[in-house]
Structures are given as structure tokens and as C-alpha cells.
Amino acid sequence: MKPGIISFKAARPDPRVWMFLVVCILLLTFPCGSRLELFIMFILLALIMLGQQMTAAVVRFAAIYTLLLLAAELCRFIPWPPAGMLVGMLTLLLGRLIPVYMACVILLEKVQMNELITALEQMHVPSVLIIPLAVVYRYLPTLRREMGHISDSLKMRGLRFSPVGLMLQPVATVERFMIPLLIRSGKLADELAAAALCKGLDAGQRRTSCSDVRFRRQDAAWCALCGAVAAAMLCFHYYPLTLLNG
To answer: Where would you find the membrane-spanning parts of this chain (predicted)?
Structure first.
């Protein structure tokens, strides 16, 4: 694209493909909870991230997943059985949440809000659901940036926010980090609500979009592939011996 020329080409694949991916991962994490099945989902989502040029996110999730696997193995050597059981339950829960979080990160990073709203309107989703979803969609990344700003301000004053500090000094941590975050969150909610009204989300007429958001054959093929992989994982989960024996 030449400098100075604005491109209104919609992102590919369609936002509904990523929404379908999130739904598939959510449905798979309930029955498929073994370590092998969760690892397969992690590898598939990592490959999708690499295909979407999200290398930094893949490295970050790989490091977190490796730490979880190490914690799951080391919990066996904890001398106090209740503590080992608690660590094992936490690692299992986080292992189930990581694939869902990865799918949501792909959706947040690769879909523009206006294209998401247009896709939902084409699906005839009511406005009472689209407006809160649009506000939350913009609120979460903004809140993450605000947490980084608050953490930087604490470092400038010689303070540091960490999970260890939260356990050792909960009152001081809440005073230094959570209270500024809550105050800033209220202001952010008002700003995002005003921005949503300025963009015409509550208008009675149908909104237009500069991007050509359409569900094409390639998008249908991606959804079919996601559905086929999800169905295959469910079949191997419920009928492993039958499928292996032919």
C-alpha cells in the first residue's frame, strides 16, 4: 500500500471465524481435560498464532505452559498432601483456561471493533447484546494498559506490585494498586460509554461500515476445519479404543 492511501479492506479471515474458534475451544475444554488433549489444543492454537504473526504471544504462552507442567510434576514431591492437592488443582484449572485465553487473545488482537459489530449485526444479534460486548471488547485492552501505567508509577516511587507482595502485605497492596485501578476503571467506563454513543451504537438505523465485512467461502472452509478438528477430538475422547482398533 502506498503512503498516504487509506485501505478499507476488511481483515481476513472474517470475525465470525475467530468467534467460532472461541466457541469450539470453550466446548472442548469441558470434556477434554486430560494433559494430552490440552497439549494438543495448545499446539493447534500456537500454530494459528504463528500463522497470524503473533510470535511474541506464542513465546509468552509457551513459557507459562511450561511452568504449569513443571508445577504439576513438582506437586508430587510436596510433603504436605493438602498443599500438593491444592497446587495440582490450580495447575489443572489453569491448564484448562490457557487454550480459552489464547483463543480470546487471537480474537482481541486480530479483529477490529467496527468489523466485529458489523459481523454481529449481519448475524441479527440484538443491540442489547452488541453494545455491552463492544464496550467490554474495548475495555479489557484499555484496562490492561492502565494496569501497566499504575505499575510503572509504583516503580517510580520505589514500590512494586507482585503476587508475593499481595500475599505478604494485602492491605498495602490494595491501597497502592487496587484503589487507583478502581478509580481509573470508573472513568474509563464513562469514556468508553461516551465513545460508543458517539459511534452510533444506540442508533435506531442500521450502521454502515467502510470495510467490506462478508462471510466468504474461505471463511466457511476455516469454520468447517475447526468443526472437524473439534469433532475428531471429541471422538478420540469418548471412543479412543474403538477408533484405534478400527
So the answer is: 20-48, 54-72, 84-108, 123-140, 220-239
Summarize the confidence of residues 178-204 as an average pLDDT: 74
Q: Does position 224 have pLDDT exceeding 90, yes or no? A: yes
What is the C-alpha separation between 45 and 26, in angstroms, rounded?
13
Q: So what's the pLDDT on residue 204?
A: 64
Give start and end residues of each alpha helix (H) in 30-80: 35-51, 55-74
CA distance 169 to 176: 11
pLDDT of residue 6: 47
Nearest to 178 by CA among 196, 203, 154, 195: 154
Largest Cα separation within the chain, whole Å, is 66
Q: Is the pLDDT of residue 5 over 70?
A: no
pLDDT of 3 higher than 90: no
Please report how the helices 81-110 and 35-51 are oriented relative to each other, as an axis angle in degrees rounded to 10: 30
Phi, psi of 108, deg, nearest 5: -70, -35
Half-sphere exposure of 37 (CA within 13 A, CB side): 22
Smallest CA-to-CA distance from 119 within 211, 23, 31 is with: 211
Residue 139 and residue 192 in contact, taking contact as beta carbons nearer than 8 Å: yes
Compute CA 241 distance to the chain's CA centroid, rounded to the nearest angstrom. 34
0.70 cut: is pTM over it? yes
